[in-house]
Structure formats: C-alpha cells, structure tokens
Design goal:
2 domains; 13% strand; six-stranded mixed beta sheet; alpha/beta
Length: 533
C-alpha cells in the first residue's frame, strides 16, 4: 500500500501536474502509520515499522519519477547498460532512506488527532532538507514541486522557499486523514473536521495572496515593456551522440550561427542578449581566438553572448583543470567573465570515491578523465551592457539559493543540456524546478536548453515564452522586470527553519494533552506516557 501511495504521488510532478492525487497519497500514508503504530509498543518496534512504511512510500514515489535517468546510460549501452538497474533502483533506494528515517521518527512520537499531521509534515520536511544537503545533495522532485502548477499557491516559496513549501504541501495533503482517521479520539465529526477546514482556509488564503502578488506584478510588466531588454535564446536540438563527434563539429557551429543570425520579426531597439545552452560548441572556445571572432561576427549588431562552454585553466605547476562554465563574451570577442559550475553531477561529471570505484570498472558518464573540476563560488556577475546576472548550469538550477547573494541579480541565466534524457519526463521536471528559483528570488530567468525546454520565465515563475522539447529554433523574447526583493532572497532557509520550530512547539504542547495519546491495544500504559523504551 505504501509503494502504491508513493507511486500515485509521483503523478503530481511534471509532466502530469495532477496535484489532487496528493490528498489520497498522504492521507493513505497517515492511515498506514495509524494502523502500524497502534499495534506495537516500544520505541524500537515503532521506529522499524515507521521506517519500512516511509521507505516504501518514497521508493514508490522516486522510481516512477526518476526512471528517466536510465536514458543517459543508453547512449553508450555497451559501456553503461549493466548499470541501469543500479541507477533506476539504487538511487531511489538511497533517497528513500531520508524518508524512512523521518517517518520512523514520526512513528516513535506518534499521537492521535491533528497533531500527528503537523509532526509528519515537519519531520519529512526536515528529512528532505537533509537530502538536499548531505553527500553533495540531490533535492530533485521535492514534494513541494507537486503543487508547482498552482501559480498563486506557489508564490509562498518567495517567503519560505521550496523546502518550506514542501512542509505546507504535506500538511495540507494529509489533513483529510484527520476526518476519517483510524485512530479514535472520541471527538465527533465536526471536531475532527475543524483542522482540515482551518488548513483549507489557510491554503485558499495563500492562493489568493499569491494571485494578488502576480496581478500587481503584471501591472508593473505592462508599464515596463518600452524599456525591456531583448533576448534571443538558441535551441539547436543537437543529439547527444553527435555533440562530441569531431565529424559533426562544423555542422554544429553552423547550426548555432544560422539560428543566431536569423532576422528578427520585429527588430529590437536595443542590442539583444544572445544565450546559447550548456557546453554549446564541441571546442574550447576560450582558447580559439579565430572561432570566437567568427562567432561574434555572426551575432546581431552589438550583441553580447552568454554561452555554456568547457574552459581549461592551467595552474602554476602546469596542471590543467577543466570547468563546465557559463562564459560572457561581449562584442570584442574576449571572455569578460565566467561562472564555473559549482555543483557537479555525481557519476555524470565526477566519480565519487574514485579511488574505490574506478578499480571496479565504474567511471563517470562524461568521458573526461579525471572528471570536471568544481567552481568555488556562486556570485552575481556585473558587466557593462548586461543586467547583473547569476548563472545556473544544468543541475545547479534544482538547488535553492539558501544564502543571500552579496548583491542582487537582475536576471538568472540557466544553461543546460537535457539531451542526455531524450523525450522523457526529466526535461519537464527540470524546467518545473528551475521556475522556483525565480519565485524564490523574485528575479526573471533565461533558460537555454540544447534539446529543450528553453524558456523565458518571469519573476513570478511563469513561463512567458518557450521552445518545446525536441524543437529547433530561436526564441525571441523580452526580459521581464525584477520584483521587489523577496523575504527568501534576504533570509534564505531561516523562514523554513522557523516553520519547523513552530511545528515542533505545536506538537510538544499537544503531546502533553491526554486527548491526543494513543490507546495501547496491549493493555499497557498509553504510548504518550511511555518513556525510555
């Protein structure tokens, strides 16, 4: 049942976005814990059964929502096909450990009535925060993204971030379990329905507040159209098999230049910003002056280019490091600034525990021994003729910016190569998560993807224009204006931690109330009175 409930919850994510299933999934999780906890005494036994229920729920959630990872292994099946079961099953099994620990802890502290919903949502939220930070972190498909198709409700991420939104989504989705609970509190139906009614009213209020926030922003958008910065996003749709084949290098360069130099339907008054996706050209563009000159000659007049590219740095000892970078190239053809990818993809761009795994025949998918080097800092880049911007290369866009930037960006630039994952749900999920970085910061995002989905995203996280998955072309759009600085941009995860502290205080106060203690079917003392077991 836990596996099925978790699998059902995965339908709330892109490309399906069917968020009503969350009420069934999380209510079922609560009822499974009710049945399991009441029949067991002792902290250890309750933790074990809670861990099993939580792990199974999460495994059922992650397998169908992350199966697309296997697409990358099929690009060179003779080398990587044998690893597909480990990727499709092993990664979800690991990620589910955080849920198992969180739900196991909830089972030990279980009570009856609505406080158990507060307890469960808070502990899963804490577990998901740990999943996003420990062992380089992997915060893909947080439960909060399940409500991402609700634009108004999603604006709460501007206050408490996606981790705080995860707590709120679970709290709201599990609330119906209080009305038809397995645990009996002796309260009548009106009393049991009070908590879900309060939560429903709060969710509606948040949604209305979010809609008002968007409406106020739309008024600002209408008044700023005359001064908007034009942007051209190029999507060449180069297959991953061809991307690094030297025989296709000339065709790839010509494709970029032809798409970039196409006439504008409505010629912009200002020089446009041109954005190419991650590792756009199969060359080290920073080391080839003639190539950069050719590229900049093909740009619309006085344009500046932001492009993904591999960049080599040689230290004083002669050791070379390769960075996956976002390069800023003005009209003079020189590299004016770069953002080096800070968060590399484990097993994709670098091999964790290389000393142990490489002798076993395991290596990273990108064949670049000894792998990429990681950048040292996320920063806001300021250049003449460009709005101040912060870069996100591919995978980095799924990580919330939990600390404030030293100075505020005026745009976010996400370059990515989702060709690894074909036409699966992966690119849709990636776009859905990137949108939340704009909501959290109140800053628009330019997203350039090799095979799609390229988009212009406004400061409220809405896609204003896009090129679909697998399309070839360029997207001409104007840069939406920046919103007022959001609380999340100022405080980072402090709001989320405050939400967890509030949930803990509510639970502890209610736990001291006898009406919420679990009746012990074994005839011993109520679970709420058991200590040290």
């Amino acid at each position: 049942m836990a596996l099925l409930a978790g699998g059902l919850a995965s339908l709330s994510l892109p490309p399906y976005d069917f968020w009503p299933v969350l009420f069934v999934s999380y209510s079922t999780l609560v009822w499974l814990l009710d049945c399991s906890v009441q029949s067991r005494t002792g902290m250890r036994r309750r933790f074990v059964v809670g861990f099993a229920v939580g792990w199974c729920f999460a495994f059922g959630y992650f397998v169908p929502s992350l199966w697309w990872i296997s697409e990358a292994f099929w690009l060179e099946p003779e080398k990587f096909a044998a690893l597909i079961p480990f990727a499709v099953g092993g990664l979800p099994a690991y990620l589910s450990l955080y849920w198992g620990l969180a739900v196991g802890a909830a089972a030990m502290l279980w009570v009856t009535g609505w406080p158990r919903i507060v307890l469960l949502s808070g502990l899963i939220g804490a577990g998901e925060w740990l999943r996003g930070h420990l062992l380089t972190g992997f915060p893909w498909n947080l439960p909060g993204y399940g409500a991402g198709s609700l634009d108004g409700f999603s604006q709460i991420a501007s206050l408490i971030g996606i981790y705080g939104m995860t707590v709120i989504v679970i709290l709201a989705a599990a609330a119906p379990a209080v009305v038809w609970g397995v645990s009996k509190t002796g309260a009548g139906l009106p009393a049991r329905a009070a908590f879900p009614a309060v939560i429903a009213a709060a969710v509606i209020a948040v949604h209305l507040w979010g809609n008002n926030r968007i409406a106020a922003y739309d008024v600002t958008l209408q008044g700023s159209s005359a001064d908007a910065v034009p942007v051209r996003i190029v999507q060449p749709n180069i297959s991953q098999k061809d991307k690094w084949d030297p025989g296709h290098a000339g065709r790839i360069i010509d494709t970029y230049l032809n798409l970039t130099g196409s006439p504008f339907n409505n010629p912009p008054r200002l020089p446009p910003i041109v954005v190419w996706p991650e590792s756009a050209l199969p060359r080290l563009i920073g080391e080839e002056d003639a190539l950069r000159a050719r590229v900049m000659a093909g740009m619309p007049s006085r344009s500046q280019l932001l492009t993904g590219g591999l960049h080599r740095v040689v230290d004083d000892a002669g050791k070379a490091s390769i960075f996956n970078s976002l390069l800023a190239i003005p009209a003079d053809g020189q590299i004016a600034a770069r953002h080096d990818k800070v968060r590399l993809v484990p097993f994709g761009e670098f091999l964790p525990f290389q000393w142990l795994l490489e002798p076993l025949g395991i290596r990273q998918i990108v064949n670049l021994p000894p792998g990429f080097s990681a950048g040292h800092e996320d920063r806001v880049i300021k250049l003449d003729g460009l709005p101040a911007f912060a870069g996100f290369i591919c995978y980095e866009a799924v990580f919330p910016r939990s600390r404030p930037y030293a100075s505020r960006p005026e745009m976010l630039v996400n370059v990515t190569n989702d060709a690894w994952f074909g036409t699966s749900g992966g690119p849709h999920q990636h776009l859905g998560q990137a949108r939340f970085r704009s909501i959290e910061q109140g800053v628009p995002m330019i997203r350039a993807a090799n095979t799609g989905i390229s988009a212009m995203i406004d400061s409220a996280g809405r896609v204003r224009a896009m090129l679909g998955l697998g399309e070839v072309g360029h997207l001409d759009a104007v840069m939406p204006v920046v919103m007022a600085e959001t609380p999340y941009a100022v405080m980072g995860d402090i709001g989320f931690l405050g939400l967890l502290l509030l949930a803990a205080c509510v639970y502890l106060i209610c736990r001291r109330t006898k009406m919420f203690r679990i009746p012990d079917v074994s005839g011993n003392r109520p679970h709420g009175e058991i200590t040290g077991r």
